[in-house]
Structure formats: structure tokens, C-alpha cells
Amino acid sequence: MDRSSGGRDRILRPVIRQFDLKDLPAIVEIDREVGGGYSPELFMTFHEYHPQTMLVAEAAGGVVGIVIGFKHTPLEGRIFWLAVKPAHQGRGIGRSLLSAILRIFSRLGAVSATLEVRIGNRRAQSLYASMGFVVDNVIPSYYSDGEAALIMRKIL
Ligand SMILES: CC(C)(COP(=O)(O)OP(=O)(O)OC[C@H]1O[C@@H](n2cnc3c(N)ncnc32)[C@H](O)[C@@H]1OP(=O)(O)O)[C@@H](O)C(=O)NCCC(=O)NCCS
Fold first, then answer.
1. Is the shortest distance between the CB of 123 and ligand 1 below 6 Å?
2. Could you tell me which CATH number the domain at 15-155 has?
3. Where are the alpha helices (DSSP H) in the chain?
4. What is the spatial distance between Cα 124 and Cα 25, in angstroms, rounded to a whole number?
5. Is the minimum distance from the CB of 52 to ligand 1 under 6 angstroms?
6. Buried (b) or exposed (e) across 64-96, using 16+ Cβ within 10 A?
7. What are the φ/ψ torsions at residue 149 (nearest 5 degrees)?
8. What is the pLDDT of residues 41-70, one digit of tens each?
9. pLDDT confidence of 9, banded at 50, 70, 90?
10. Which atom of ligand 1 lies closest to the CA of 90?
11. Spatial separation of the C-alpha atoms in residues 47 and 125, rounded to whole Å
12. All structural domains of the chain with their residue ranges
């Protein structure tokens, strides 16, 4: 995406709220557009077991982003998936979603948050680094296509 336009109008101020069942078609479509490859059943499972940490961003009259996480230990939150509709990327929505889920993790008692990201996904890594995540580990051949994963961690 061309970020050269810059300026304040680049930023969209989304409403961040919990996922609702009526959002399912929109997030399946976002997942398809960014090539996430997750199934509607998986989204339904997160909705059932981790509703507090399954958030959507609403802007421009629709759902434009999703973040999914869960408390995987009493003291740590895990970000499972973050995606923003390509047409709305680069406008602060990913950052808003991430900030919101980190606040919820803190409220739920977590003192740190972790995530995994493809080693080639520089864009996501730069977002995470700018929010205080640091690389904790590198796992070679983590993904089914052989790409390595970075495990990143942030103290909340
Ligand atoms: C990664 C992703 C969620 C970021 O969401 P986004 O809404 O585009 O990100 P934001 O606009 O909030 O940008 C936040 C930061 O990301 C980085 N960033 C965003 N767009 C970028 C671009 N085109 N090039 C480089 N860095 C970029 C910057 O650090 C930016 O901070 P800044 O705006 O203060 O410079 C989004 O690109 C996406 O959905 N990608 C496909 C799915 C994916 O890779 N998910 C992550 C899996 S681990």
C-alpha cells in the first residue's frame, strides 16, 4: 500500500467491540481477502470459549478488522489472529484492535502477551514492535510451507 499520502486523514477511528454472530460473514470475508485460511467453525469456537477477547473493528459502515486472542495461562494472553480488510489497511485499525485486546488481557489479569508471526511478515512485525513487542524466540519451519515463526512478547 502506498503510505506516502500520510497525514491525519489517513487514520480511521474505528469502533472496537466484541464479535457478534452477525459479524461471521464479514470476518470470513476478511480472512479470505488476507489469505488467513481459518474456518468459520474455528471462529465459532473462539466465540464460544473466548468471547471477551474476540473483537471486531467497525468503520466506514461495516466490519473492517478482527483480533482474536485468549488467556493461555493465568498470567499471559495470546494473540491468535489479527487481520484488517485490505482496503482499510494502513489507517490505524490494526493498532486500535491490538491496543484494545491488550487492555482486556490486562483487565483479565495477564502480565504479558505473546504472538507468533511469519518471519517474512515485516508489516505485522513493525506494528508489533512499535507497540512494544520484542522477539522472544525463532522457530524454524513453523508453518506448513516451511516458513519460520517469530514469537514476540510484550510485558503489559
Ligand atoms: C498486519 C495488519 C493487521 C496491520 O493492520 P493495519 O490496520 O494495516 O495497521 P495500522 O494501520 O494500524 O498500522 C500500524 C503499524 O503497522 C505498520 N504498517 C502499517 N501499514 C504498513 C505498510 N504499508 N508498510 C509498512 N508498515 C506498515 C506501521 O508500523 C504502522 O504504524 P504507523 O502507522 O504508526 O507507521 C494488516 O496489514 C493485515 O491484516 N495484514 C494481513 C494479515 C496479517 O498479516 N496479520 C498478522 C498475522 S501475525
1. yes
2. 3.40.630.30
3. 24-34, 40-49, 93-107, 122-130
4. 24
5. no
6. bbbbbbbbeeeebbbbbbbbbbeebbbbbbbeb
7. -115, 145
8. 999 999 999 999 999 999 988 999 999 999
9. low
10. 11
11. 26
12. 15-155
